[in-house]
Design brief:
The complex is a heterodimer of chains A (137) and B (143).
Chain A (H helix, E strand, L loop, with lengths): L8 H25 L9 E4 L1 H9 L26 E4 L14 H34 L3
Antiparallel strand pairs in A: 1-2
Helix pairs in contact in A: 1-3
Chain B lengths: L4 H25 L15 E8 L3 H6 L8 E9 L5 E4 L11 E4 L4 H33 L4
Helix pairs in contact in B: 1-3
Classes of the chains: A mainly alpha (137), B alpha+beta (143).
InterPro entries (chain B): Flag_bb_rod_N, Flg_bb/hook_C_dom, FlgC
Family (chain B): Belongs to the flagella basal body rod proteins family.
Protein name (chain B): Flagellar basal-body rod protein FlgC
């Protein structure tokens, strides 16, 4: 992860987390919207492991040398996009709809709280920068 | 990455559930209707939901947005369940044996359906709240 000017790696990670949480919220909305649709299989976005892996990747993969080269090192932060997993359908009611309302609501609350936590941390980061910039006065 | 996508999905669900509630109201209102424009007693209507990706562009979009689908009312079906019959010789629509055909509507079923629609509506409304809060939080970054 290159350090862009005054923003460090954490800012990049937090930005990525916001993106992924937003996508996760879209998928949860979609599950909730289709709670009465026969045959609908709910999905869930999983990205925690991928993100962890990207963060553990200390090798700091070199940027491709040419704009048209593909980066084959993998695991870099920009490439984390999460995987959409289909959830098993086992409510046994026979309508082939696997949406579990309680589960969706809990996941939604969790997702929202993590999102807000990430925005708060971003704010703290930016606040620090601001403090440093203004400390000369 | 559009922050309003999730709200649009939930709003598609809100309008689908509202349609369902309209249909349920219509069923409940017509629970004793023996005369309809198409002749015979009223028949129960029921909605059929279908997950929706309205346009080609959305299908194309799905490659990158897999797992995201709104919902729409596919059709409003006329129930073919048998009509209720009661013996009521004094009724103007009674047949020669004194039986009256009444709509195939079970009030209890409709009430349960109505509660279900209300709860689902609420769940989706709260999904909109969550999305909205997230969007507002994002606007506060860097304040």
């Amino acid at each position: 992860m290159p350090i862009d000017g005054m923003f460090d790696r954490t800012v990049g990670v937090l930005g990525k987390v916001l993106d992924l949480r937003n996508r996760s919220q879209q998928i949860i909305s979609s599950n909730l919207a289709n709670i009465d649709t026969p045959g609908y299989t709910p999905s869930r976005l999983r990205f925690e492991e991928d993100l962890q892996q990207a963060l553990d990747d200390k090798s700091q993969a070199a940027a491709p040398r040419h704009a048209k080269h593909f980066d084959i090192t993998g695991g870099s932060l920009e490439q984390v996009s999460g995987r959409v997993e289909r959830l098993a359908n086992n409510n046994g009611l026979g309508d082939q709809n696997g949406v579990d309302l309680d589960q969706e609501m809990v996941t939604q609350a969790e997702n929202q709280i993590y999102y807000e936590a990430a925005t708060q941390m971003l704010n703290k980061k930016l606040g620090l920068l601001k403090y440093v910039i203004q400390s000369d006065r | 990455m559009d922050i309003f996508t999730s709200m649009q999905i939930s709003s598609s669900a809100l309008s689908a559930q509202r349609t369902r509630l309209n249909v349920i109201s219509s069923n409940l209102a017509n629970v004793g209707t023996t005369r309809t424009p198409e002749g015979g007693p009223y028949r129960k209507r029921q909605v059929v939901f279908q997950s929706s990706n309205e346009s080609f562009a959305k299908h194309l979009d799905n490659a990158s947005k897999q797992g995201i689908q709104g919902v729409k009312v596919a059709e409003i079906q006329v129930s073919q369940a048998p009509l209720r019959t009661v013996y009521e010789p004094g009724h103007p629509d009674a047949d020669e044996t004194g039986m009256v055909h009444l709509p195939n509507i079970n009030t209890m079923e409709e009430m349960v359906d109505m509660m279900n629609a209300t709860r689902t509506y609420e769940a989706n409304a709260s999904a909109i709240q969550a999305s909205k809060r997230m969007a507002l939080k994002a606007l506060e970054i860097g304040r």
